[in-house]
């Protein structure tokens, strides 16, 4: 029962932090320092990635009309049932995924043992917190160049994908945070930045989860399977609320509050591990 409660807690943290630009992986690593699941290190690596599928499913449910490229309603029969704009959007998403795919296949196992720790998380929390504040101040008064997903070019998508790669290498960066920073820098509006970040997460996290499952195998114990399913379900439910909140919030506010949160949390983490716990 204790392990189930821990899985619920991890699911809540995942559901909140996956979509806010404050680093879900970073928070999960930090939470694991204080609330450790009684599982093998190998399963923990799988849990850390695959639990995100629950959060991703929330995006699919909430944005189904913008993600599904076919329309079977009667009003579309005259012009066909294929939504070409959505197909084009998916091609742009796939272009943005290329850097992360190359890294995941070739370098993930080499880098992860050295960088997935509290120190890296704290440093990246602070660095990208500063980046959010600086970029939002720089953006103040500027009109975004890109105000719709259709206006994104393939070049824009690739640049955003390169920023996502930073998050893949350095935990604490935040995948959503890195892609939003990259998008804001090239003139994408906050709403479009967030939506493209959400959509980009779908193939990236499905691919990352599949890679972890292939490496780990499907030989889960009943306890491991239960913990994984519970964590995913909780992450899904929490994500539904968090995504709705974020999309409403950024229509009237900027991302600086998340930058300050990251800086404060990063400093507290450094103080804890190098002063209090030393």
From TrEMBL:
Pfam families: BacA. One of its GO terms (cellular component) is plasma membrane. The chain crosses the membrane at residues 43-65, 86-107, 113-135, 156-174, 227-247, 259-277. The keyword Transcription regulation does not apply. It comes from the Bacteria. It catalyses: di-trans,octa-cis-undecaprenyl diphosphate + H2O = di-trans,octa-cis-undecaprenyl phosphate + phosphate + H(+). It is found in: Cell membrane. Its main location: membrane. One of its GO terms (biological process) is peptidoglycan biosynthetic process. The keyword Transmembrane applies. It is an enzyme of class 3 (hydrolase). It is a multi-pass membrane protein. GO terms for molecular function: undecaprenyl-diphosphatase activity. InterPro entries: UppP. Keywords: Antibiotic resistance, Cell membrane, Cell shape, Cell wall biogenesis/degradation, Hydrolase, Membrane, Peptidoglycan synthesis, Transmembrane, Transmembrane helix. Its EC number is 3.6.1.27. Catalyzes the dephosphorylation of undecaprenyl diphosphate (UPP). Confers resistance to bacitracin. Belongs to the UppP family. Bacitracin is thought to be involved in the inhibition of peptidoglycan synthesis by sequestering undecaprenyl diphosphate, thereby reducing the pool of lipid carrier available. This is Undecaprenyl-diphosphatase. It comes from Eisenbergiella massiliensis.
């Amino acid at each position: 029962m204790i392990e189930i409660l821990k899985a619920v807690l991890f699911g809540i943290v995942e559901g909140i932090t996956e979509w806010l630009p404050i680093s879900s992986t970073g928070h999960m690593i930090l939470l694991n320092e204080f609330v450790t699941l009684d599982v093998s290190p190998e399963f923990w690596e799988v849990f850390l990635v695959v639990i995100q599928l629950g959060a991703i499913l929330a995006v699919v449910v909430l944005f189904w009309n913008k993600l599904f490229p076919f329309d079977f309603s009667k009003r579309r029969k005259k012009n066909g049932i294929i939504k070409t704009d959505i197909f084009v959007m998916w091609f742009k998403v796939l272009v943005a995924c290329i850097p992360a795919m190359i890294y995941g296949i070739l370098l993930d196992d080499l880098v992860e043992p050295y960088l997935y720790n509290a120190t890296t998380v704290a440093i990246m929390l602070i660095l990208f917190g500063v980046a959010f504040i600086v970029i939002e101040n720089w953006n103040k008064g500027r009109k975004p160049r890109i105000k719709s997903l259709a206006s994104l070019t393939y070049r824009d998508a690739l640049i955003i994908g390169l920023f996502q790669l930073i998050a893949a290498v350095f935990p604490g960066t935040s995948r959503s945070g890195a892609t939003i920073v990259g998008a804001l820098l090239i003139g994408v509006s906050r709403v479009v930045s967030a939506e493209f970040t959400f959509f980009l997460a779908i193939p990236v996290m499905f691919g990352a989860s599949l890679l972890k499952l292939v490496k780990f195998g499907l030989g889960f114990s009943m306890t491991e399977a239960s913990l994984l399913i519970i964590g995913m379900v909780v992450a899904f439910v929490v994500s539904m609320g968090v995504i709705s909140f974020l999309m409403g919030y950024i229509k009237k506010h900027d991302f600086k509050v998340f930058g300050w949160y990251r800086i404060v949390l990063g400093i507290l983490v450094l103080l804890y591990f190098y002063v209090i716990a030393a």
